[in-house]
Amino acid sequence: MSHQRAITHLRKSDPKLAAVIDTVGRCTFAPAEHLAHFTAITRSIVFQQLSGKAASTIYGRFAALFPDETPIAERLLELPDESLRAAGLSRQKIGYLRDLAAHVVAGDVPIATLHELSDDEIIAALTSVKGIGRWTAQMFLMFRLGRPDVLPDLDLGIQKGIQRAYRMRKLPTPKRVLQVGAKWAPYRTVASWYLWRSLDAVAENRQGK
Questions:
Q1: What is the pLDDT of residue 142?
Q2: Which of 32, 103, 136, 190 is 20 to 30 Å from the Cα of 114, by its Cα?
Q3: How many C-beta atoms surround the C-beta of residue 44 within 10 A?
Q4: One of 99, 120, 155, 200 is an active-site residue; which one?
Q5: Please, is 110 exposed, middle or buried when counting C-beta atoms within 10 Å of its C-beta (0-12, 13-18, 19+)?
């Protein structure tokens, strides 16, 4: 997947982001196109507010409850709470997962055809589910569907990345994030990826000292 057009635009539109791009290097962003929509969304719910390693372990146990380790809405509604709790899921997340499954079964979330909707339509459909906010919907747009112009204004990593790139004293507000990122359109997904990776680079440099 080539991101050259996006990178060329971002370099021209924002010298500060150009410096971030130089620091991070080649863009390796690629959406998880192999994942079913329902799988991707359940994964996002499980990963909320957990470290990557812990979330991966819990999600692996959750997926193992389904044939071929592929979560299915109907099967999820049939599973007893005890099985889901044994996988390591909190009661709150069990509620979120069941609400998602109920919306899918009822047809309120058109899971099979989500990719045919606009970004705003997808966000509206997903945020109708308990436990799915704008951030989770945006992660689905970016990392499952590969939508090119998503800027997660509520994301702490994005806020920190902008703060560092622009040498701001305070974290930018979500409104300020959108203002700063307006010039990156229509490639704000790649810009976001670079901001996240810039924080990874900082952490790695600190560990190396």
A1: 95
A2: 190
A3: 23
A4: 155
A5: middle
Residues ≥6 apart with Cβ < 8 Å to 146: 30, 31, 33, 189
**Domain residue ranges in the chain:** 4-30+151-208, 37-143
Measured from the Cβ of residue 26, the count of other Cβ atoms closer than 10 Å reads: 7
Residues 6+ apart with CB under 8 A from 53: none
What topology is assigned to 4-30+151-208 in CATH? Endonuclease Iii, domain 2 (1.10.1670)
pLDDT value at residue 168? 97
> Which CATH architecture does the domain made up of 37-143 adopt?
Orthogonal Bundle (1.10)
Active site residue 99: no
Q: What percent of the chain has pLDDT over 70?
A: 96
Residue-wise pLDDT for 119-133, tens only, equals 999 999 999 999 999
Unique residue bearing structure tokens 């380790």: 69
Q: pLDDT, tens digit, for every residue of 139-158?
A: 999 999 999 999 999 999 99
